[in-house]
Amino acid sequence: MTDKQRNAPARPKSAHSHSGVIHVNEPHHDNFTVVGNHLAQHPELSLTAIGLATHIQSLPAGTSIGIKALAAKFPEGEIRIAAALRELEEHGYLSRTKERLQSGRVTTRTISYNKPGRAAIAATPSPPPQPARCPSSPQRTPATDLLAGLRAHDTRLLLTERDVHRLAPAVTEWLERGVPPIAVVRALTTGLPQDPIKHPAAFLAHRLTTQLPPHLPTPPPSVMPPRPDPLQTCDGCDRAFRSPHPGRCRDCRSSQVVA
Question: What would the pLDDT profile of 172-231 be if each residue is shown by its tens digit?
């Protein structure tokens, strides 16, 4: 008797066949973008910033990447997109500088770097020299003061200076929608979890985004009170009285009826 032959191929052995990600990779020959692992696996950038950097690197030169243009394409909204753009600037993947054209109009010059390094630093315009005894420091605003003071309510909400200025636009949005500062603080500090807050900046960013109140409704147009009737001179007693039409006052009309 001859042995039976099996036609099915042997199953490949894999030490990780039951856990972790499995990659199915197909080669790209056109319409693709090369992204370095230094960006895709960046330990400090948020997922929003990593995805936005990947999108920007895939765009043709000259494409508008303003906050409003990006917010019109993606569901994250202007606050999260603005924060992600600042992250990319801080880590050297993006530079945005204001330039004045010969016409006098001010435009934003944006440069995207697929691999931050010395070339990116060298291409960034140097800031103007500071006057003597006037060191450069981030500008304080009501939003930054509010965020910096949160640690007085709970020490777990201690933020770095970078996080304060990264979250400041979101707080400013609350203030511009008519929310008093004390109400913003209450929304950020009420009902805190009992467990340690490992990432206070991410926790506050989530609250600022998910609990953002709507704009105040437009007040109704003011209604002018009706104008009083003009003064008339009574034909009977020459006394002044108010009426839409000339004639006799109420007393003279009453005496006529009695007569």
Answer: 999 998 999 999 999 999 999 988 898 999 999 999 999 999 988 877 777 777 888 888
Please classify residue 212 by burial: count the beta carbons closer than 10 Å to its beta carbon, then call 0-12 exposed, 13-18 middle and 19+ buried.
middle
Per-residue pLDDT at 144: 93
CATH of the domain at 75: 1.10.10.10
Q: Do 104 and 165 reside in the same domain of the chain?
A: no
What DSSP assignment string belongs to 98-131? EEE-TTS-EEEEEEE-SS-SHHHHHHSPPPPPPP
CB atoms within 10 A of CB 81: 22
Is 240 a member of any domain?
Answer: no
- If we measure between CA atoms, which residue out of 124, 100, 128, 122 comes closest to residue 110? 124
**Helix pair angle (181-189, 200-210), 10° resolution:** 120
pLDDT tens for residues 130-150? 554 644 456 889 999 999 999
Could you tell me if 166 and 83 are in contact, meaning their C-beta atoms sit under 8 angstroms apart?
yes
Nearest residue to 87 (alpha-carbon basis) of 127, 116, 118, 126: 116
pLDDT in tens, 92-107: 898 887 777 777 777 7
Closest CA to 236 of 259, 212, 208, 206: 259
Matching residue, tokens 């995207």:
112
Among 88, 121, 154, residue at a domain's last position = 121
What is the spatial distance between Cα 171 and Cα 164, in angstroms, rounded to a whole number? Answer: 10
